[in-house]
Amino acid sequence: MATGRSNKLVGQTGEYMIAAELSRRGLIATTFTGNVPHYDIIASDEAGRHVSVQVKASRVPSWQFGNITQYCDITFDGKRQVVGDRKPCPVRRLIMTFVRIEDDGNDRFYILPWERLRDLLIDHYQAFLSRHNGVRPKNWESLHCAISEKILNPCRDKWNIIEKNLR
């Protein structure tokens, strides 16, 4: 069973793993250990170009997000949820990194721009709502969303996205 402490350790481990991988790739990676609202790491190159990086870590093949309204507007028509406008990225050039932490050390990394994550989450959320006529089956008011490793698979090891976004 996941506890608050074990969840913190998974998150902290993920941040350090991403920072280490960025360093291995020639970037200076500074972690903020959850003290900055939208990102966990600033990565910079020799020229001083930098990019903000958000880290999501998990020991299971999915990552949970508290609320889809971080990514789009939701209105209610009775119990039906209606997906509205997509929201802009909260930080310019924000890169999302996901790490699947494995006990055997065969960890997996997924890298994508925030806007691509937003679009994947919204598309998945809309598809789920469509299968249920717009009403979430267990709790119609829930705005919880998640993304699976299967959906992120095309983003595996796309470290070049970070380098492309250095400015």
UniProtKB/TrEMBL annotation:
The record, for Gene3D superfamilies, names: 3.40.1350.10
Q: Which InterPro entries match?
A: tRNA_endonuc-like_dom_sf
| Domain of life assignment | Bacteria
Its source organism is Eiseniibacteriota bacterium
Q: What is this protein called?
A: Aspartate ammonia-lyase
